[in-house]
């Protein structure tokens, strides 16, 4: 039997990608906002119902662009339960992360903890829609308005997710998404940034490309552009998103039907959410149980992931002295199971059986 990892990147039919490559060879336009990048941005706007977005080189640089474009250099209230990029970019941009604990049911940042963490130096809230589960966007927006704060959403997991019929990427002053190879929709490497503010979007566009347009220089900037080759992958994959999500839903429902829910549980997902089935996290009763289950799966060459671990407030190099007991506890007990469109039904049942035997 072959090894089973937590995810496997979707690849479109090779001939479809080669057709786009043939066009790149004919045009010799490889990067610098080529026609495929322009086409992908237009199609993403239409698919997501967004007025403006910028396709960028990855899902981390877009967070950096968001902080820089908003002029953030003070305190940023953020979640300890996320991939490390969320907090790393704050420090990288010379701002200060302030961790607010999470809700135990969704693992998203707790609005009450946000409000309790606000100080005169607070400038922004940077929250993650964990596993594509929406944060309490209404509460967060109300808190931000009350205190004059910017809201940035790390929406790396949310492509295709809707809240009350609206793309989750449309919330906040700025939202970002990852198009990394492991995501539901990917461009091999890539990401996007969106904002409803046209002036801010124009500033982000400048920052993405060294701060200039042709020979007109306006500001500093970096190289956060993406290439025609990555856009080609995105153009191949975008029409397949509905099918990809449907296949992921099928695997999800198999797990739902065969795992022993007397001894494990899942995050709570509101009925108002249209899911993308990006991840399949389960909560164990203890870290000891998690490690026992993981060892049993690894023995069968099945490799789930502790996603997310550790709680980011415990990373010593961030120099944060802030306890987040819910996040610290949940990070010890959460395991993401293998989930991808062509994961065979027999393997899903085998994974569920191994887990149930070791609870």
Automatic annotation (TrEMBL):
Key words, A-Z: Pyridoxal phosphate
Keyword tRNA-binding appears in the UniProt entry: no
Pfam families, A to Z: DegT_DnrJ_EryC1
Gene Ontology BP terms: polysaccharide biosynthetic process
Modified residues (N6-(pyridoxal phosphate)lysine): 183
MF terms (GO), sorted A to Z: pyridoxal phosphate binding; transaminase activity
UniProt cross-references to InterPro entries, sorted A to Z: DegT/StrS_aminotransferase, PyrdxlP-dep_Trfase, PyrdxlP-dep_Trfase_major
UniProt feature coiled coil, ranges: none
CDD domains cross-referenced by the UniProt entry: AHBA_syn
Active site: 183 (proton acceptor)
Keyword rRNA processing annotated: no
Similarity annotation: Belongs to the DegT/DnrJ/EryC1 family.
Protein name: dTDP-4-amino-4,6-dideoxygalactose transaminase
Organism of origin: Siphonobacter aquaeclarae
């Amino acid at each position: 039997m072959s090894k089973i990892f937590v995810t496997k990147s979707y690849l479109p039919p090779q001939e479809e990608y080669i057709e786009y490559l043939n066009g790149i060879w004919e045009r010799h336009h490889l990067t610098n906002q080529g026609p495929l990048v322009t086409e992908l941005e237009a199609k993403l706007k239409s698919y997501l119902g967004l007025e403006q977005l910028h396709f960028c080189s990855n899902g981390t640089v877009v967070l950096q662009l968001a902080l820089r474009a908003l002029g953030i250099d003070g305190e940023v209230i953020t979640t300890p339960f996320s991939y490390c990029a969320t907090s790393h970019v704050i420090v990288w941009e010379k701002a200060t992360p302030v961790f607010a604990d999470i809700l135990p049911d969704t693992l998203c940042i707790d609005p009450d903890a946000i409000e309790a963490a606000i100080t005169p130096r607070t400038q922004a809230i940077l929250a993650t829609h964990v596993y594509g589960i929406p944060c309490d966007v209404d509460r967060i927006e109300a808190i931000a308005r009350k205190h004059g704060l910017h809201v940035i959403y790390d929406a790396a997991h949310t492509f295709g997710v809707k809240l009350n019929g609206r793309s989750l990427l449309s919330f906040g002053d700025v939202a970002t998404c990852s198009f990394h190879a492991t995501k539901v929709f990917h461009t091999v490497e890539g990401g996007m940034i969106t904002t409803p503010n046209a002036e801010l979007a124009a500033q982000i566009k400048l920052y993405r490309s060294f701060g200039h347009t042709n020979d007109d220089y306006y500001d500093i900037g970096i190289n956060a552009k993406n290439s025609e080759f990555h856009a080609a992958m995105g153009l191949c994959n975008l029409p397949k998103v509905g099918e990809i999500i449907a296949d992921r839903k099928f695997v999800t429902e198999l797990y739902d039907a065969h795992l022993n829910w007397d001894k494990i549980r899942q995050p709570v997902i509101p009925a108002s959410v249209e899911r993308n089935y990006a991840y399949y996290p389960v909560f164990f009763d203890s870290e000891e149980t998690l490690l026992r289950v993981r060892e049993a799966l690894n023995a069968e060459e099945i490799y789930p992931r502790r996603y997310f671990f550790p709680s980011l407030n415990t990373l010593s190099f961030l120099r944060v002295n802030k306890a987040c007991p819910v996040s610290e506890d949940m990070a010890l007990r959460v395991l993401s199971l293998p989930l991808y469109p062509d994961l065979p039904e027999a393997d899903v049942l085998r994974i569920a059986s191994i887990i149930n035997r070791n609870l």
